[in-house]
Amino acid sequence: MLSLKTELKNKIIKEAKSLTTLFVISLVLFKIIFFKENVLMIIRTVSAFFWMFILPGFTFMYIWHEKLEFLERFIISVPISAATISILSYYISLMGLHVKYHPILIPLSIMIISGIIVWRKDNIIS
Q1: Which of 52, 59, 47, 56 is CA-nearest to residue 23?
Q2: What span, in angstroms and rounded, lies between the C-alpha atoms of 119 and 126?
Q3: For the chain, what are the domain ranges?
């Protein structure tokens, strides 16, 4: 029981380091491509890209962390995030929530719900 939780925790820490490495690599690549732009603007752009298109899908795909490797989940996370965020944004705006709240509300809610599902799935297995 304890080994499953520590194993999952170690896996999450390892993959958080990998995501941080990919974030830094993206920053360097964006700085090379957009060499005339301000560094803070590049950090803001890459952070927004990761927040909107990688983290929600990656946490959602973490439900299948036993079956999929890190790179597979990372690649699948981009279209999953784009599809989920666009569909949820459409329906949430139909319910009356202003669009300015969507970049904060939708990715955060996807990550929280996915985290709860992974936590409950881990507790059920143990």
Answers
A1: 47
A2: 11
A3: 2-125
Q: What is the CA radius of gyration of the chain?
A: 16
Cβ partners under 8 Å of residue 21, min gap 6? none
Residue 63 contacts by C-beta under 8 Å, 6 or more apart in sequence? 114, 117, 118, 121
User: What is the model's pTM?
Assistant: 0.82
Q: Has residue 27 got a pLDDT over 90?
A: yes
Position 4 scores a pLDDT of 63
Percent of the chain with pLDDT over 70: 94
Of 44, 19, 20, the closest CA to residue 31 belongs to: 44
